[in-house]
Amino acid sequence: MKFFVDTAEVDAIRELNELGMVDGVTTNPSLILKSGRDILEVTKEICDIVEGPVSAEVVALEADQMIEEGRKLAKIAPNIAVKVPLTWDGLKACKVLSGEGNMVNVTLCFSANQALLAAKAGATFISPFIGRLDDINLDGMELIADIRQIYDNYGFETQILAASIRTVNHAHQSAMIGADVMTAPPDVIKKMAAHPLTDKGLETFLKDWEKTGQKIL
Q: Could you count the other beta carbons within 10 Å of the beta carbon of residue 115?
């Protein structure tokens, strides 16, 4: 499973990348706002750090403008994935941009039908939003499972990018279902390493080691 980091904070990306935990990065207008940086500048810096795909999102609503913005974003670096919304105009933009050889991440997916359309339009990634479905009392994991089955049924090469991941359980369940990629905030990825039994075991080991009176260094 590929790990994408859902942030535009360069220091957080660099820290996780040094551990080999970053296969790509996803950004969106909200994350760019949070970073306080210029979109072209910060995206270029991220692309210089990370070898894998870096999603940069268009903000236009009409296909022609999406395509123009997508082409400009794609010029930032060879590893840019142009991010477009799952609207009819977004699908039009996806078809054109992917046909020109660009990676395209179709975002804000909330149904299997939407995911099917994105695959037909040539999307490199489809981003179903797990957390936002959970917010309205729907099971985001059912959507991941439905898309996985449909894509496997017909051999679509579009990668399922589990997005809006908010908990370590989301990460675990996405991996069990077979999402190709998950994108999560840095703190969620770090929390995946935590377990109370690990902490308890380490505490016991250290107490026993102290009793030996020995040192390694």
A: 27
